[in-house]
Design a protein that fits this description.
By secondary structure, the chain is an alpha+beta fold. Helix content is 41%, strand content 20%. It contains 29 helices and 32 strands. Strand 18 (240-241) and strand 19 (249-254) form a beta hairpin. The protein binds 2-acetamido-2-deoxy-beta-D-glucopyranose (NAG) (8 copies) and zinc ion. Residues 498, 511, 513 line the site of one 2-acetamido-2-deoxy-beta-D-glucopyranose. InterPro entries: Aminopeptidase_N-like_N, Aminopeptidase_N-like_N_sf, ERAP1-like_C_dom, M1_APN-typ, Peptidase_M1, Peptidase_M1_aminopeptidases, Peptidase_M1_dom, Peptidase_M4/M1_CTD_sf.
Length: 910
């Protein structure tokens, strides 16, 4: 599954209040074996959208019990007609004495007159009905209008992940409770019915005219959240045959309007599936895949086995769309198909290990994209981006571990955070780099094979990789991968490794601690840190397997360096930043690294390490571990740097500090930044020719960055280039002539420079389109305004919307505005005034971002209790508020303790 809209830096969920209350789990007395599901769907116009049917569940008794408990939510169960009988040839009937519903736990318990026998099988049959809901979960309705006929078409589709199958039929709705399914769908003949497997036969409905019952082929053992079906009147394109082992056939369905933009996705999917099949060496077990592009979708996409659903706007690749968006859509697709193995074939034991399906699917999604679309260079950029995100996020107090205990439906849903996706992906990459290609793939393949059709916890992955490592070199090491990796997945944050060289004895001394911005409290956490040295002479950045380890716990360690490390040359740890830790060296070693960076040999240091060195040294200076003079000495090499990744990283780090500054300090900072980005800007061609010059994604990324940051810091030439697209009556059309990848930046610059006509015309376009990526870019551009009077009607408009996406746009606009600070105070006031509405409409994630921005980063002068007073409308958000206050304290520490040094060091360069 892929979360929707990751256009903005996403949330910092506070450590959730964990409930260790097992009452949310199903009792383990029963094990479902098979479901027979029969559902009639009615799509008779807007006021009569409903379904009815029954489920027959065959289950086995593992422990004696007098009750059957399963999940059901918002379903009308026909209790009088529930039956329970022994199966298949048993006798006797069992009466239900009492029924108990618990809506909080979403459980339905049938107490029986007699006891169920161990090892016996029974069949439970429950008739039920419900309206199709409009919330994009469970079995829901959606609609689209056909531009040719101007007719509104209703359709019904499912979204069961993570805990919504129970809204569609009573079931044992936990991922490890796999069972086989036979699904029969009833609907009016004018519609098409789809499910995970193809239709095997159809018969006319016994009473309803023009209705049919179509039975689908049996589905192999699966978790309930992967079951899917749909009844719709979408348009399909001709079937494509993939080159997989059993030539899986692909059909894609979409509203007619999306047809012309869907070619990429239609053709990309079969290639992705067959690439992954070869990579994993495990044949995709189903005969067909339907891809369903739905007008509405709770997430971006969902990996249902054999019936993958997408939000329509995440499936279509529009002509007028940034390269970044196209890539991100292709990445979502690759992610969903990687799930066919990670999640579908091998299920989770429980949602605490959600990262075990989202992490690999994200990582293998990157690898797939890199293999199939190498010109995009997505892998390196994606990894660099994720490293950037987590080195930042995880240095605050309020971050979370990748794997966390979860119980109730809400905390399960909240578990779908960037930690399980992107940090999970970084964890897979870490294993890949540390084990090496060969061992990693042997381990991954044996893991899939061993656990196919079963379910796993993270120890099962460690075990498979351990065996593969032991096989390769039985004597080599006694490293226990389970111990090593648990230290990375069960703890929040990441370590700082301190490395002191003894140049005369050619040894190093190492120790570790958790890296936190404002190291206010000692945390006794530690990690198993892989030690892989690169030295200046050998430049062996490709050799990422650990030479040794810093254990956990350990009070420090001395290591002898090889003779290749001369005292006159630097050493470096963590080649390719294969693991998430920072390193602080002694000053002499830092100076030698800086010397190489400031030479023609700067690119002999791996690009990801260059980015990391900049980030590390700046953050270490933030923390008093090093001096800002040293950090800015490293920045001197930047004019040589021709790659976007190190630039992007360093600008991100500096902007995060700059946003905290005020007055004279801010003024000096802006002068410094203008100087810093000028050599970057000089590399960027004119906007009118930029598209002719490059179609390469890495260069587009470089030029976008150059324009964005240079216009932001008032590089005169940047503003005047952006401005050239301004003096025209047909403002909007005119701005459409800017190459699409740069349009958002040009719009932002013009709006920031006071172009009200452009603001108004974008506002108007915004209201007249459903194109999410476009709206997202516009929301950010409108936030560049310097005039609160201008921006307010837009914020009001978003606030009044009922579409949840509107609140994402709101967050983007506000983020953009707060980063620029022109109207920060008014915006903060505006948000405080609307606390009540925000409380009722926005998600906790959205609220967290807002609070972090207005309280954490703006360092509001209000005392805590005044703030709480102002924010009393936000009554469900105590944890979010506390996290924002903590962040403010951390940032205040930097302002009082370090900002002066920071400004003093950079003043030399202004
Ligand atoms: C919905 O449609 C069914 C079948 O067409 C009909 O029997 C039922 O009365 C309708 N319900 C409403 C509320 O219109
Ligand atoms: C439902 O479950 C919750 C959580 O375990 C419990 O607090 C509550 O009392 C239960 N409600 C009923 C009606 O049993
Ligand atoms: C299509 O339907 C909408 C609303 O139902 C109506 O306003 C519009 O005029 C119709 N357009 C055409 C071309 O029939
Ligand atoms: C089904 O299709 C037929 C022929 O295209 C049409 O006349 C009829 O109105 C449709 N029925 C429904 C319920 O949409
Ligand atoms: C489905 O679409 C077809 C062709 O576009 C049309 O003939 C049919 O009436 C539609 N059915 C419904 C239920 O709208
Ligand atoms: C690590 O070593 C450095 C340098 O000797 C020392 O300042 C620091 O306190 C040590 N940290 C820990 C957590 O032991
Ligand atoms: C390191 O690996 C990359 C990618 O596989 C390759 O292009 C490069 O030549 C290698 N460098 C060295 C020094 O082996
Ligand atoms: C971080 O958390 C620790 C322990 O949970 C707490 O003592 C400390 O005050 C927090 N620091 C900040 C800056 O909020
Ligand atoms: Zn996913």
């Amino acid at each position: 599954m892929q979360q929707l809209v990751r256009y903005f830096v996403s949330l910092l969920l506070p450590a959730l209040v964990l409930s260790h209350d097992n009452s949310y789990r199903l009792p383990n007395a029963l094990k479902p074996l098979h479901y027979d599901l029969r559902i009639l769907t009615r799509l008779n116009g807007a006021h009569n959208l409903s379904f009815e049917g029954y489920v027959k569940i065959d289950f086995k008794v593992l422990h004696r019990t007098r009750a059957i408990t399963l999940h059901a939510k918002e379903l009308t169960l026909d209790e009088a007609h529930i039956t329970l009988s022994p199966s298949p040839n048993g006798s006797g009937s069992y009466s239900i004495s009492r029924i108990e519903r618990n809506n909080t736990r979403e459980l339905y318990t049938m107490h029986l007159a007699g006891e169920l026998q161990i090892d016996e099988q029974y069949t439970l049959s429950i008739p039920f009905s419900a309206p199709l809901n409009a919330n994009n979960v469970g079995y829901y309705s959606s609609s689209f209008s056909d531009a040719r006929t101007n007719q509104t078409h209703y359709l019904a589709a499912t979204q069961f992940s993570p805990t919504f199958a129970r809204l569609a039929f009573p079931c044992f709705d936990e991922p490890h409770l796999r069972a086989t399914f036979r699904i029969t769908l009833g609907y009016h003949k004018n519609y098409t019915g789809l499910s995970n497997t193809p239709v095997s036969k159809c018969v006319d409905h016994e009473t309803l005219e023009h209705y049919v019952w179509c039975e689908h082929e049996p589905l192999l053992s699966t978790s309930t959240y992967l079951v899917a079906y749909a009844v719709h009147n979408l348009t399909s394109v001709p079937v494509l045959q993939s080159e997989t082992h059993n030539n899986v056939s692909f059909r894609s369905w979409m509203p007619p309007n999306a047809l012309k933009d869907s070619s990429f996705s239609v053709h990309f999917a079969p290639k992705v599936l067959s690439y992954l099949e070869k990579l994993f060496q495990f044949a995709f077990p189903l005969g067909k895949v339907d891809q369903l592009a739905l007008p509405t979708h709770k997430f971006s996409a969902m990996e249902n086995w054999g019936l993958v659903t997408f939000k329509e706007t995440r499936f279509a690749h529009y002509a007028e769309e940034t390269t970044q968006n196209k890539e991100s859509k292709a990445r979502t697709m690759a992610h969903e198909y990687a799930h066919q193995w990670f999640g579908n074939l091998v299920a989770l034991n429980w949602w605490n290990d959600l990262w075990l399906k989202e992490g690999p699917s994200t990582y293998f999604g990157y690898l797939t994209l890199d293999a199939l679309m190498p010109e995009w260079g997505s892998l390196q950029r994606g990894i660099a981006n994720d490293l950037d995100t987590f080195f930042y996020k995880d240095m605050f107090n309020d971050t979370i571990a990748i794997s966390q205990d979860v119980q109730d439906a809400n905390s399960i849903l909240n578990q779908f955070s960037s930690h399980v996706y992107e940090k999970g992906s970084l964890t897979m990459r870490m294993l890949h780099k540390l084990l090496g290609d060969e061992v990693f793939y042997i381990g991954i393949r044996s893991y899939l094979k061993r656990h196919a059709y079963g379910s796993v916890k993270q120890a099962d992955l460690w075990q498979a990789l351990q065996e593969a490592a032991d096989l390769k070199s039985p004597s080599a090491s006694d490293i226990r991968w389970a111990t090593v990796m648990d230290s990375w997945t069960l703890q929040k944050g990441y370590p700082l490794l301190t490395v002191l060289r003894n140049y005369s004895s050619n040894t190093v001394w190492l120790n570790q601690t958790r890296f936190k911005l404002a190291a206010d409290s000692v945390e006794h956490s530690c990690w198993w840190i892989p030690l892989t040295f690169v030295n200046q002479r050998q430049l062996n950045f490709n050799e990422t397997q650990p030479q040794s380890w810093l254990e956990c716990p350990s009070s420090g360690k001395t290591l002898r360096l090889t003779n290749d490390s001369s005292p006159k040359e630097w050493i470096m740890l963590n080649p390719q930043v294969n693991s998430l830790f920072r390193v602080n060296y002694d000053e002499r070693n830092w100076r030698m690294i800086i010397k190489t960076l400031n030479s023609d040999q700067y690119d002999s240091i791996h690009i990801l390490n260059r980015a990391q060195l900049l980030d590390d040294l700046l953050m270490l200076s933030s923390n008093r571990e090093q001096s800002y003079d040293l950090a800015f000495a490293m920045l001197e090499y930047l004019p040589r740097e021709s790659e976007p990744l190190p630039w992007n990283r360093v600008l991100g780090v500096l902007n995060n500090r700059g946003v905290l500054l005020r007055g004279e300090q801010e003024r000096i900072f802006r002068i410094f930044m203008r100087k810093l980005v000028t050599p970057l800007f000089v590399r960027a061609p004119q906007l009118s020719s930029v598209e002719l010059i490059t179609k390469s994604s890495p260069l587009i990324a470089l030029y976008r960055l150059a324009y964005r940051e240079s216009c932001r810091y008032d590089v005169a030439e940047c503003i005047s280039r952006a401005d050239r697209f301004r003096h025209d009556d047909e403002l909007y059309l005119r701005s459409m002539q800017v190459p699409v990848d740069y349009r958002g930046i040009v719009d932002c610059t013009n709006i920031e420079q006071g172009n009200n006509k452009l603001f108004q015309s974008i506002f108007e376009q915004f209201q007249n389109t459903n194109d999410d990526p476009k709206k997202s870019a516009w929301a950010t551009a409108l936030g560049c305004s310097r005039d609160f009077g201008q921006l307010k009607p837009f914020l009001d408009y978003l606030m009044q919307a009922t579409d949840k996406l509107a609140y994402d746009y709101y967050v983007q606009t506000v983020t953009s505005a707060l980063e620029r600070k022109h109207i920060a105070t008014q915006i903060a006031d505006y948000i405080l005034q609307h606390a009540k509405a925000i409380n009722s409409k926005f998600s906790l994630k959205q609220i967290q971002i807002l609070l972090n921005k207005i309280i954490g980063d703006l360092i509001t002068e209000l005392e805590d209790n005044q703030l709480r007073q102002q924010l009393r409308g936000l009554d469900k958000c105590e944890a979010q508020l506390q996290a924002a206050l903590d962040r403010r304290d951390t940032n205040r520490y930097w302002l009082t303790e370090r900002a002066e040094h920071f400004i003093k060091a950079l003043t030399k360069y202004t």
